[in-house]
Specification:
Blueprint (H helix, E strand, L loop, with lengths): L6 E4 L5 E2 L15 E4 L6 H5 L25 H6 L9 E5 L6 H14 L4 E5 L4 H10 L8 E4 L3 H10 L5 E5 L16 H18 L2 E6 L12 H5 L2 E6 L6 E9 L7 E7 L2 E4 L3 H6 L9 E8 L2 E13 L7 E4 L3 H13 L8 E7 L11 H13 L7 E3 L2 E2 L5 E2 L4 H10 L4 E5 L11 E5 L2 H14 L7
Parallel strand pairs: 4-8, 4-9, 5-6, 5-7, 7-8, 13-17, 15-16, 17-20, 20-21
Antiparallel strand pairs: 1-2, 1-3, 9-10, 10-11, 11-12, 13-14, 14-16, 18-19
């Protein structure tokens, strides 16, 4: 019998190749191919024939998806209203950020509500899980525990007793199956193990949560195909040294994507933050130059966050550009617009940009707030107190309108702000008690801050 030839599988996208090469042809990443033995397909599987399935029309009655509330409102918000029976959810995040803490809290809340909950750990012993539950005050919750890494044993355990409603597997990188002859954590093992567990979730109706490790680039480790297999992908954001965490939905088949939930890490576990806007702007300095408050939308939630900029004379031949919480390429674009369209010079200055609180912004509407913070720091004068900014900046320097203006203004009004700087034409059909300063180009913001600078006798920005 001929020995099967090994495959070379990309760790980034899961594509297979018959020979090793430095660059993956599918995704273009370098040094991601690793050798793995192919899985031997059973003879019965190779010879099996398919059965025809019934084809149904697109129109018809559909029932609303049932939801199981986790008892954690912020987690339910991220998932679109709770756990959907039969769904598979992938949770990622840096080590020590709070993944296991949140899941043991959710498991305890569901178990106390009468659900059958099974928590399987491949990284920790039963004693370690019990110590965490005791520290969180959850040791009395009727959660069933297991410490196992073999997928066949886990599935046999789940199928031997009463049907489970909620299953946690921590983590997918530690699991292995007999169908694949490779080490745990490899691409083929992760993909095959995840496929078996997702198949169990669909067949049994249990909500299955898979915990995933994160690489140094901040991506969930393993093949990206696992993210396409599951129904929802969530990521924990934030610095492990800070007291708050942000859970963000990257993908959700049963709810809105890009929804966020905000938590605070305490001695008693993760505590929900009902008003995250106060968390991100509560400690800001209203008199310091280089800060602007952005009225943004994260999923379905309006959120105010402070954008901080520092522009200083550079002693280097090539000035530094450091960004935390925003796209560095977009910062380069805003600086180019300020240089070309507004006449401000940044070529001999270091530029540092930070989104307060460790939040990561991806919305183009943050352009105007970033531009205002840069202009304020360069001019050395603070932006108007109690003001918010939002709007997308084009390469011509024009400020373009963005969606959901009313929600942004209502959130700013609720938190006591009195002025909103927004794109021209955004006030149509919007009722607000805030003073609205409509701008057409980014040069209008430069002129407004220059007027404030002249009034304070600081001098015109250059």
């Amino acid at each position: 019998m001929a020995r099967p030839r090994p495959n070379y599988v990309c760790a980034n996208c899961g594509a297979a190749s018959s020979k090793w090469q430095g660059r993956c042809d599918a995704c273009g990443e370098w040094n991601t191919l690793s050798e793995e033995a192919p899985a031997a397909a059973p003879v019965a599987l190779r010879a099996a024939r398919g059965n025809p399935v019934e084809l149904l029309p697109l129109s018809g009655e559909t029932a609303e998806l049932p939801r199981t509330l986790s008892g954690i409102a912020e987690l339910d918000r991220v998932l679109g209203g709770g756990f959907v029976p039969g769904s598979a959810i992938l949770v990622g995040g840096d080590p020590g950020i709070g993944k296991s803490t949140m899941l043991i809290q959710a498991a305890a809340a569901l178990a106390c509500a009468g659900r059958r909950v099974v928590y399987v750990s491949g990284e920790e012993s039963i004693g370690q899980i019990r110590l965490r539950a005791e520290r969180l005050g959850l040791s009395a919750a009727p959660v069933l525990l297991a410490a196992e890494t073999r997928v066949e044993d886990i599935l046999a355990t789940l199928q031997s007793g009463p049907p489970a409603d909620f299953v946690v597997l921590d983590s997918i990188q530690t699991l292995w199956t007999d169908l694949v002859e490779s080490a745990p954590g490899t691409v083929t093992q992760v993909r095959t193990s995840a496929q078996a567990l997702i198949r169990y979730a669909k067949a049994s109706g249990a909500a299955v949560v898979l915990v995933g490790h994160v690489t140094k680039e901040g991506q969930i480790a393993g093949p990206r195909v696992v993210e396409h297999m599951v129904d929802a992908v969530t990521m924990f954001e934030g610095d492990a040294g800070q007291h708050f965490r942000v859970l963000r939905a990257i993908k959700n088949r049963f709810g809105p994507a890009s929804e966020i939930g905000v938590f605070e890490m305490t001695d008693a576990g993760l505590k929900e933050v009902a008003n995250p806007s106060l968390l991100f702007i509560g400690e800001r300095d209203r008199t310091s130059p280089g800060a602007a408050v952005f009225a943004g939308i994260e999923g379905t939630r309006p959120l105010l966050v402070e954008v901080q900029a520092l522009v200083s004379e550079s002693a280097l031949g090539t000035p530094r550009r450091a960004v935390v919480g925003w796209d560095p390429s977009r910062l380069a674009m805003i600086l180019a617009v300020l240089e070309t369209r507004c006449g401000m010079r940044f070529g001999t200055h270091d530029v540092y940009l930070n989104v307060a609180g460790g939040l990561r912004l991806a919305e183009p509407a943050a352009d105007l707030a970033v531009g205002a913070a840069l202009i304020s720091s360069r001019a050395g004068v603070a932006t108007p107190p109690e003001s918010v900014y939002f709007g997308e900046v084009g390469l011509s320097g024009s400020v373009r309108p963005v969606a959901q203006t009313a929600m942004r203004l209502n959130e700013a009004e609720r938190l006591g702000f009195s002025l909103a700087v927004l794109p021209s034409g955004s006030r149509e059909g919007v009722r607000s008690t805030l003073s609205l300063n409509e701008v057409t180009t980014l040069a209008d913001v430069v002129a407004a801050i220059a007027a404030e600078s002249a009034a304070q006798g600081i001098g015109k920005p250059s």
